[in-house]
Amino acid sequence: MSRYAPSEIEPKWQAAWDEAGTFRAERSEQPKYYVLEMFPYPSGRIHMGHVRNYTMGDVIARYKMARGFNVLHPMGWDAFGMPAENAAMASGGHPKEWTYQNIADMKAQMKPLGWSLDWSREFATCDPEYYGQQQALFLDMLEAGLVYRKNAVVNWDPVDMTVLANEQVENGRGWRSGAEVERRELTQWFFKISAYSEELLDAIDSLDDWPAKVKLMQANWIGKSRGLRMGFQRTDGQGQIEVYTTRPDTLMGASFVGISPDHPLAKQLAEARPEVAAFCAEARKGGTTEEALETGEKLGFDTGLTVTHPLDPDWQLPVWIANFILMDYGTGAIFGCPAHDQRDLDFCRKYDLPVVETFTALEGHAPVTDEAYVPPKTEPVKWVKHFAGLDVATGQEAIDATIAVAEQGGWGKGVTQYRLRDWGLSRQRYWGCPIPVVHCESCGVVPERKENLPIRLPDDVSFDVPGNPLDRHPTWRDCACPSCGAPARRETDTMDTFVDSSWYYARFTAPRAETPTDLDAAAYWMNVDQYIGGIEHAILHLLYSRFFARAMHKTGHLPASAIEPFNALFTQGMVTHAIYKSAGADGRAVYHFPEEVETQGERAVLRETGQEVEVVPSAKMSKSKRNVVDPDDIVARYGADTARWFVLSDSPPERDVEWTASGAEAAQKHLARVWRIVSELGEAPEAAPQGADEELAKALHRTIHDVTMGFESFGFNAAIAKLYGFTATLAKSPASRGAKTEACRALAQLMSPLTPHLAEEIWAELGGEGLVTGAPWPQVDESLLVDDSVTLPIQVNGKRRAEITVPKEMAKAEIEALVLAHEAVQKQLNGGAPKKLIVVPGRIVNVVV
RNA sequence: GCCGGUGUGGCGGAAUGGUAGACGCAGCGGAUUCAAAAUCCGCCGAUGGCAACAUCAUGUCGGUUCGAGUCCGACCACCGGUACCA
């Protein structure tokens, strides 16, 4: 054996795994385990975040393999989406070529990392074989009543005459044109996810192995609320305005009725009155995001119309059009209660509308001025005037009482409402899955016939002008109506890329099937036992996937057991890196790549010039800040095993980890040290001093136990810390050659999920049978884990003052006596008697004086 | 704005309500060496003290508890999401 040379051993073992087909998943009699990491977008290069994410999945996959599971660990590409079109616009290429080239490049980067992936199942969502099956799913969902069309607002760039994504709107303006964006309505396709609101909410409770924070975020997103739907009669006798409110108890504090600029009444008024039309046009300016709507300036327009308060025929309220009221929520109309809602208060102060309190704090009442009084619904308050005769009651009690009164009086109805809106899937873009429907003049909207799938994207398109190339393609839209055969036009909207990623996990179970799934394969492999990905997907992707699994079950593509597709979820943190920054000649910040910088003690300087640079620690890696490291370079410099070890060693997996060159070097030194220990086994003595072999065995089995626990609970950093510790013990151990060889063999096994190439090399060197990958996981000898004595810290008034070591089974009374007799305790007692003595067996003793 | 999260030495972090700082980095000291690389050993939160030891210390302020990094309340800062980025 020679020095540790990852560049030699890593390709060798990767070839060996390939040749043995180690990672090819076939159905078998063994219990299955499906581990999946969120598949990547083919941006062109993998980054350290991918390395960390996929290494975590790999550790799980390899560990489960060693535990006797039949492991499925596939990989593919989330390949549709805007960046490909942006690239085509910027440099004139074609999204398809750009995407497939990126896939080839990234795959070439991924292979050297030695991940246990079954590449035979690979697909990209832009493969017609994939999106054709997605079109089939769409048609089945359409038939099942889970898809429909309605109007919805988009960001419209009036200069480029095109729809913009939210990220293409910067400060209310189009990123290319700089024009003020406006909200415009288009007829679009929707999935009826709202039909599953209740079920998606209730089933969250069954997701035992999901992070609590993700479940909480999803529950809040679905947003179940109980409120009142009621009408305000117009004083002009032209009917009523229907509003929805979650705070009907504040009805006596109403000071206006507000409607959305997209409300039918607003539209009707706008037709007759130019000033209304002008206001509505102004109110539609800006982007469609919830954030933009919530934080933007609140604008109102007094229509001059009035309505009657439902509980007081003499009380008239003005009707305002307000830009912060969304047609999508509730009925598109509200009543404003400024005293108990900050937004309504701001609005009323701005437009000089009255502010009436309906309840006050039990103590310390201060009249509302510029801050609305909004206590939690669970807090009791004093009611000023409440029609249900309440005096002191909580908000929730008042809401319930109000709904009861309204229903009894027949002027309102309690309704359960969800915040969750239907999923708009239409995108006015080229690089996505075409929606397989046809528009026929006589038959209307007609689904495409399944035998005509896939409806392929045309290749001959250009991106020199904004807008959807499918819309302006000379022939692609022309087709025959599937129903009557007359000339008709294809739908030119494509699907949201979230559709692509909502069922890929199911497709991996039978990636070449002629139908979306193969039910036998799905029944065997589903569910995903462990899903791993970024917290940024906590709501949308994961909620859409949960909906899709239900829809696929309803349409016969998944068994009932798979409606919650991910048994366990883990959300990992980012890989960060310091930013190196200096001031350029014009005073603007100049960023430097890590390899241009050298650290000298506490300072960091540019290698070339010696100029000192500012170090900003732990920032998300981004190309513009140049704080990136390329996995290719890292593997070439340190080897894949070092990269894998380091990304998991320094930080708990759910938290961010900072990539540092010194940390990577330390990881490599450690692996070289393990290597050296193995190569020097021959120098160990045949016979060991008394007890040395037993000591080593004890340490080994404690390590097997701890590392196993670490892998079972995503404690990779803790497992690695234990491996560091055991390696140090092993290096110093005077144990016999035989005992040390055994320990090294077990060490290789424990390290194999993390550093599989090094582990294989050691395993082979020490005469292990076959490959260490998949060799049965070492068993813990429980009898070696028990200690017969225990060290107890002694606290006085919660401060540690001393410790005692006692036999594990010592009685409480004996311990108490020992503690009281202890010199340090005597000193603290100062001759007095303790007030209290707390003995927590095996943990701690606390003396209270 | 709203929802969720995070905050501990010079740095990354460890710690079932029970000895705060495991393990690693950086730094300092030493061994080995002609010298270096590599390797090995030791020290390493702050303040005071020769030392024993004492005091302070887990974003800030309060609370619960024999005991709080951990639980509760308020606040500050940063990060993720906010339905067309993926």
From TrEMBL:
Record-annotated Leucyl-tRNA synthetase editing domain positions: 220-400
Chain location of the short sequence motif 'HIGH' region per the record: 40-50
GO molecular function per UniProt: aminoacyl-tRNA deacylase activity; ATP binding; leucine-tRNA ligase activity
Ranges for domain Aminoacyl-tRNA synthetase class Ia: 420-576, 620-659
Residues that hold ATP according to the record: 623
Position of sequence motif 'KMSKS' region: 620-624
Domain Methionyl/Leucyl tRNA synthetase: residue ranges: 35-170
Main localization, broad class: cytoplasm
Catalysed reactions listed for this entry: tRNA(Leu) + L-leucine + ATP = L-leucyl-tRNA(Leu) + AMP + diphosphate
Domain Methionyl/Valyl/Leucyl/Isoleucyl-tRNA synthetase anticodon-binding: from-to ranges: 693-811
Domain of life: Bacteria
Localization: Cytoplasm
SUPFAM superfamilies linked: Anticodon-binding domain of a subclass of class I aminoacyl-tRNA synthetases, Nucleotidylyl transferase, ValRS/IleRS/LeuRS editing domain
Key words of the record: Aminoacyl-tRNA synthetase, ATP-binding, Cytoplasm, Ligase, Nucleotide-binding, Protein biosynthesis
Similarity section: Belongs to the class-I aminoacyl-tRNA synthetase family.
E.C. number(s) listed in UniProt: 6.1.1.4
GO biological process, one term: leucyl-tRNA aminoacylation
InterPro entries: aa-tRNA-synth_I_CS, aa-tRNA-synth_Ia, Leu-tRNA-ligase, Leu_tRNA-synth_edit, M/V/L/I-tRNA-synth_anticd-bd, Methionyl/Leucyl_tRNA_Synth, Rossmann-like_a/b/a_fold, tRNAsynth_Ia_anticodon-bd
Pfam short name (any one): tRNA-synt_1g
Source organism of the structure: Pseudoroseicyclus tamaricis
Gene Ontology cellular component list: cytosol
Protein name: Leucine--tRNA ligase
